[in-house]
């Protein structure tokens, strides 16, 4: 979604609500409904921001806390190493002990598990191994879960530069989110102070190709300044002009379809009217470069896919050159 133009400033004046009479119970109930538009408009801070992020999901941007996640894994890893060392010592002590049942712990699970009936018992040489094992099992589970969760969080996409910039503009607007950044308490104030760093993720990534990112977004801003601000109405809730990402993506799709139809046809026509063989090879090479560049800029493809598709187009051109009689052909 593109948010274009300056926001429409809303008046901060609040109209007092008259007291509710007993006969107005139904009206009072309606005013208290969560979906009531007036009530939503009066909300500020986190509740208002939650409304905005749920309505425009491409702005569901949150901190990843990479450093803290890494620190948590390191501390859990260190604790496991200490418990492992303690476990090895207690296992050796029990194995070398002459008293039953400690000397049988290494081969008798029932006696080992029976050494500690509950976690509130005092630590003794007889139950230390099993108590250490219970703690080790708990920390290992927490560590493995943290590893998996951190892997999943790391795989989440980062928000685009445009979305970060627009989101930063929204949360700092005094007439919409009531300056979420400025009004948060204590250390919360720096949650979004550096939206340009890589410690943010989005829950709903929007795949944006280079053409949409570099050209269509700029055209949208130009269109808004010249035509859009006079033809479109701003969003009634946010007071800004909204151009959905779906509309921008559709425009990019139209351009892609037109070019995908024109390039092969124009390549064949150019080859047909190129008289020399060297010229036709150069034309084929030029169209292969053009095709690869358009693939990179108009679509979201991998390098291997660009190589394969460009090679396929060049192969078709070679077949056309070798099997077609050209007018006024020269060696």
From TrEMBL:
Keywords: Membrane, Transmembrane, Transmembrane helix
Signal peptide: none
Region (Disordered): 1-24
Species per Swiss-Prot/TrEMBL record: Lentithecium fluviatile CBS 122367
Entry's transmembrane regions: 254-274, 281-300, 306-326
Record's protein name: DUF6594 domain-containing protein
Pfam families named among the record's database cross-references: DUF6594
Keyword match Lipid metabolism: no
Residue ranges constituting the DUF6594 domain according to the UniProt record: 46-318
Keyword Membrane found: yes
């Amino acid at each position: 979604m593109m948010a274009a133009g300056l926001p429409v400033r809303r008046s901060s004046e609040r109209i007092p609500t008259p007291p509710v009479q007993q006969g107005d119970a139904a009206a009072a109930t309606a005013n208290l409904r969560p979906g009531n538009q007036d009530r939503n408009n009066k909300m500020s801070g986190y509740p208002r921001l939650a409304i905005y992020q749920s309505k425009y999901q491409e702005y569901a941007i949150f901190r990843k806390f990479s450093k803290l996640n890494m620190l948590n894994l390191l501390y859990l890893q260190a604790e496991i190493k200490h418990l492992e060392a303690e476990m090895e010592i207690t296992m050796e002590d029990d194995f070398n002990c002459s008293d039953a049942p400690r000397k049988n712990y290494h081969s008798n699970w029932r006696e080992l598990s029976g050494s500690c009936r509950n976690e509130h018992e005092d630590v003794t040489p007889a139950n230390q191994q099993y108590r250490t094992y219970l703690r080790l099992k708990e920390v290992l589970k927490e560590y493995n879960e943290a590893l998996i969760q951190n892997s999943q969080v790391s795989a989440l996409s980062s928000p685009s530069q445009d979305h970060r910039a627009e989101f930063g503009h929204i949360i700092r607007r005094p007439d919409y989110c009531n300056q979420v950044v400025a009004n948060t308490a204590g250390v919360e104030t720096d949650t979004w102070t550096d939206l340009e760093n890589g410690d943010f993720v989005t829950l709903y990534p929007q795949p944006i190709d280079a053409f949409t990112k570099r050209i269509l977004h700029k055209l949208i801003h130009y269109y808004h300044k010249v035509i859009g601000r006079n033809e479109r109405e701003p969003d009634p809730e946010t007071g800004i002009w909204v151009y959905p990402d779906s509309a921008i993506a559709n425009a990019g799709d139209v351009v892609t379809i037109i070019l995908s139809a024109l390039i092969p046809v124009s390549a064949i026509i150019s080859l047909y009217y190129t008289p020399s063989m060297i010229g036709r090879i150069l034309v084929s090479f030029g169209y292969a470069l053009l095709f690869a560049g358009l693939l990179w800029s108009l679509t979201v493809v991998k390098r291997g896919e660009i190589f394969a598709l460009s090679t396929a187009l060049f192969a078709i051109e070679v077949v056309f050159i070798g099997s077609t009689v050209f007018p006024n052909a020269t060696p």
